[in-house]
Design goal:
Blueprint: H1 12-27, E1 35-38, H2 43-58, E2 68-73, H3 80-99, E3 104-109, H4 117-124, H5 135-156, E4 159-162, H6 171-179, E5 187-189, E6 196-199, H7 207-216, H8 226-235, E7 238-239, E8 258-259, H9 271-278, H10 285-298, H11 320-337, H12 344-371
Parallel strand pairs: 1-2, 1-4, 2-3, 4-6, 7-8
Antiparallel strand pairs: 5-6
Helix pairs in contact: 1-2, 2-7, 4-12, 10-11
Length: 375
């Protein structure tokens, strides 16, 4: 059953009344610990945000003492279609909160400028991520998100992170929920961030439940959920979830079809990007082909240094020639599609890394020459 076929479960209305009442009760607790809503743009986080928005609206203005921060991570290599949709949704949330005078703000995180996908791959020469060397999730998702959460926690002493995690989402997600949840308690300590509590209000809902609730009501910030439904149908999959811990990393690049980074090489086949292309978005075809190119080049020994960055022998970074070749191809695709795939700042940092590496290699070569015995 999918988002267009969902049927009403008999006790779902009561379950949703209970969820809304519990979220409202938690929001109106007599303290001012800020709320952080983890938003990925997908169905689960959208439902959580909707319930939170409703709870703040139902609270008298004089009692809205708790700040709500909606955080969304932009990896800078998101699928262009998904990126446009998420940004439009965040703009609607900002506008709705401002119009209704609600203490809700939106914060979009990005990787550190020196830790973006292209700076690491084309600059440092990291091979394309795979299941044994998944360097992207930590640098592009966990670190930028954790910095924001840490700052909010430090500002208020404590904070509550609301997530759209559900047991039925996947077996891996059910294990994480079970590991870090205490039965009968709303809030559980975050595994990695002291002072941060985690609240999963829709943890027991099914996928059909989520779609039915979203289809039955318009978002309180305005507009409708038609774009969200269309995105899932077109992209043939689900969203890569909001990630705050390395325990969540396997959800990125899982076997199921998910929309997320168009550069994702952890999956064998990008069914989501394929789905978008099959639905007529042919401008994404060069991205799909280049994603496969990244995987091919990274797995070809002639494009890899024979020395690791530690100085030990072994398959090391991508060679200068490979990095330069890939950057040229990427810039050609950017010009052809008129999509912003790599920023000017990233390109500059990539070339800075090349100069840095060339300087290091020259120094090593000179040192090796000096150590050679005199004839």
């Amino acid at each position: 059953m999918n988002q267009t076929q969902s049927k009403l479960r008999a006790d779902l209305p009561q379950d949703m009344r209970d969820i809304r009442a519990e979220v409202l009760d938690e929001y109106q607790q007599p303290h001012d610990k800020p709320w952080i809503v983890g938003f990925s743009g997908g169905k689960d986080s959208t439902l959580v945000l909707q319930v939170v928005f409703e709870a703040v609206l139902r609270t008298p203005p004089s009692e809205r003492r708790r700040k709500v921060v909606v955080t969304c991570n932009d990896t800078m290599v998101e699928s262009p279609i998904v990126d446009r949709f998420v940004n439009a949704t965040l703009d609607s949330v900002r506008a709705g909160a401002e119009a209704l005078k609600l203490p809700i703000e939106v914060v979009q995180t990005r990787p550190d400028p020196d830790q973006t996908f292209w700076v690491n791959l084309l600059g440092r020469g990291y091979p394309a991520p795979n299941r044994t060397f998944r360097w992207c999730t930590d640098r592009m998702k966990i670190r930028p998100t954790s910095l924001v959460i840490d700052s909010i926690v430090k500002e208020g002493g404590e904070a509550i992170l609301l997530l759209g995690a559900r047991r039925q989402e996947s077996a891996a997600r059910a294990k994480v929920v079970a590991k870090y949840s205490t039965k009968g308690q709303r809030l559980n300590k975050h595994n990695d961030v002291p002072g941060c509590w985690v609240y999963r209000p829709i943890v027991e809902l099914s996928t059909d439940d989520v779609w039915f609730v979203l289809s039955a009501a318009r978002p309180p910030w305005g507009g409708s959920h038609r774009g969200l439904v269309a995105l899932y149908k077109t992209a043939s999959g689900g969203e890569c979830p909001y990630v705050t811990s390395k325990d969540d990393a396997p959800s990125c690049g899982s076997n199921s079809a998910r929309f997320g980074c168009w550069t994702c090489t952890v999956v064998e086949k990008d069914a989501s990007l394929e789905g978008l292309i099959d639905m007529g978005m042919e401008e994404l075809e060069p991205l799909y082909e280049f994603r496969n190119r990244l995987k091919e080049v990274s797995g070809t020994s002639k494009y890899r240094s024979k020395m690791r960055r530690t100085g030990q022998a072994g398959l090391g970074p991508l060679t200068y020639e490979a990095r330069e070749m890939l950057l040229t191809e990427l810039l050609d695709i950017q010009e052809e599609t008129e999509l912003v795939l790599i920023s000017k700042d990233e390109e500059r940092r990539v070339r800075d890394w090349w100069l840095r590496d060339q300087s290091t290699d020259a120094k090593r070569s000179a040192e090796a020459t000096l150590l050679q015995p005199l004839n």
